[in-house]
Specification:
Strand order of the largest sheet: 2-3-1-4-5
Shape: globular
Keywords: Amino-acid biosynthesis, Aromatic amino acid biosynthesis, ATP-binding, Cytoplasm, Kinase, Magnesium, Metal-binding, Nucleotide-binding, Transferase
Order of helices and strands: EHEHHHEHEHHHEH
CATH topology: Rossmann fold
Function: Catalyzes the specific phosphorylation of the 3-hydroxyl group of shikimic acid using ATP as a cosubstrate.
Subunit structure: Monomer.
Bound molecules: shikimate-3-phosphate
Cofactor: Mg(2+)
CATH class: Alpha Beta
Distance between the termini: 27 Å
Main location: cytoplasm
Number of domains: 1
Number of helices: 9
């Protein structure tokens, strides 16, 4: 059995998960600002460390390589950092190791949105920049959207972001997190 002491809730990383285009980066930046914390976008961090964009990495090294890099970085961030706001790429949470470390060491918020809203409002904005959407029919993208929901269902808290401004979603997360801190760690 691990002898590691559990990380106090107030020090845990706050981790945003959800489908592509749910607003994880924008909302994560706002949450970080409101809580005076550092923000790390996992995809941007991968791009910085490897000196290539995610689409370039998919094209030159393949998706399996990207998934390994993504998993290793998230495991490292979850086990070796605290007090951060992390936003994960939409496919990262499909990996069991990623779910395990996020749930064990962080507080996981699922940014949920409906298929209809996503298809109308978000898909047109990201369709050309996300390699996993490339060469897929709308039916295949819909399948991917619903296939992923069972992984996203493993979270600590959920925010329905349909129709919400990023600022409102960030406020909901901050309110929820402060409530959690106050209820479960009132004397810290
Ligand atoms: C992916 C989502 C992307 C990025 C990569 C793969 C996915 O991140 O990690 O293109 O499989 O859903 P966003 O969720 O920020 O678009």
């Amino acid at each position: 059995m691990s002898r590691q002491t559990a990380i106090p809730l107030r020090e845990r990383n706050i981790i945003l998960i959800g489908f592509m285009g749910a607003g994880k980066t924008t909302i994560g930046q706002l949450v970080a600002k409101k809580l005076y914390r550092d923000f790390i976008d996992v995809d941007a961090e991968i791009e910085r460390r490897h000196g290539m964009s995610i689409p370039e990495m998919f094209a030159q090294k393949g998706e399996a390589y990207f998934r390994q890099v993504e998993r290793e970085l998230i495991v490292d961030l979850c086990t070796n950092t605290r007090l951060k706001i992390l936003s994960l790429g939409g496919g990262a949470y499909l990996q069991e190791d990623v779910r395990r470390v996020c749930l064990a060491h962080g507080i996981v918020f699922f940014l949920d949105l409906s298929w209809d809203y996503w298809k109308e409002e978000r898909l047109p904005l990201i369709v050309d920049s996300r390699p996993v959407l490339k060469n897929k029919t709308l039916e295949e993208v819909e399948q991917l959207f619903f296939q992923r929901q069972s992984a996203y269902a493993l979270h600590h808290s959920r925010v329905i972001v349909n129709e919400l401004e990023a600022e409102q979603a960030a406020d909901q997360i901050v309110e929820s997190i402060k409530w959690t801190w106050d209820v479960y760690e009132p004397n810290r």
